[in-house]
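Obj: model holo form, ligand = 2'-monophosphoadenosine-5'-diphosphate.
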Amino acid sequence: MAKLQSLTGKTSLVGVMGWPVAHSLSPAMHNAAFAELGLDWAYVPLPVRPDDVEQALKGLAALNFVGTNVTVPHKQAVMRYMDELSQAARITGAVNTIHLQDGKFYGYNTDAIGFLNSLKEANCDPKGLRAAVLGAGGAARAVVFALARAGADSVIVLNRTAERGAFLVDDLAAAFPGSHLTFAALTLESLAVLDEKIDLVVNSTSVGMHPHIDASPWPADVPMPARVIFCDLVYNPLETVFLARARAAGAATIDGLGMLVHQGAYAFEKWTGQPAPIEVMRQACLTNLKGGDKEISD
Ligand code: ATR
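Output (holo structure tokens):
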């Protein structure tokens, strides 16, 4: 159980900017980490309307915030106000973490490193693997970037809306010449023929997320090969139908909690300069996920 924190006149502030943010797990995760390390820091929810993004960023600077996480729907909107962008933020076209230093805004995307660290934790090295990424939204962009940067042999993007998938692949292929990025539209047939061509499947769609927990991006009548690793970015519920079926088929699975925790840990380390207490952060998320509030987001 996290220790109680007390605020002082010197408390350093960070938060999460989004609309809405009421169901974010990040305040619980970061405040548990601050308490664990005895840091005089606090992490607050920052509900910001879409029209108020610029004002909100100016406000954070004026109020001497150290930084903030950025979530839906502001991840793209904040980019134009950054003084510097990390390579991941630039290539994925999204910022989920801002660090304010000497009045300057530094924009990062910690989803990509968070995803890679969650694979590493599960003893999965993407180098040389042939990956299939389901989805072409913001989360998929971070995953494709991460896989390409980590030296995956090939990345196939499968998406319901074909143009969006093609757009992602074109963008990322330009950033990683020679990474063998290819595109296929998400259809039952294309999944069926993937069998011999993939080692890792990542669900980056929102299919299977609460409240639609009976849905899976993988059709029930297409077998899930036991030699393939199946990874789901959805963490609410932790055991999605996608992962449950993969497990039942004898395949290795990786759930979405690792990415959530590791993207938060990387932001924590940027802000505080201290190693993040990963297990404490994971437990804080688990406690909230099990706490009965089903309307949870990052
Ligand atoms: P995020 O930023 O979390 O990735 P997003 O940008 O809204 O969220 O992307 C959601 C992804 O899930 C998209 O790839 C979306 O497919 P489309 O591009 O066709 O919209 C995918 N998705 C959502 N609901 C889906 C469904 N019922 N079936 C298949 N794909 C779905």
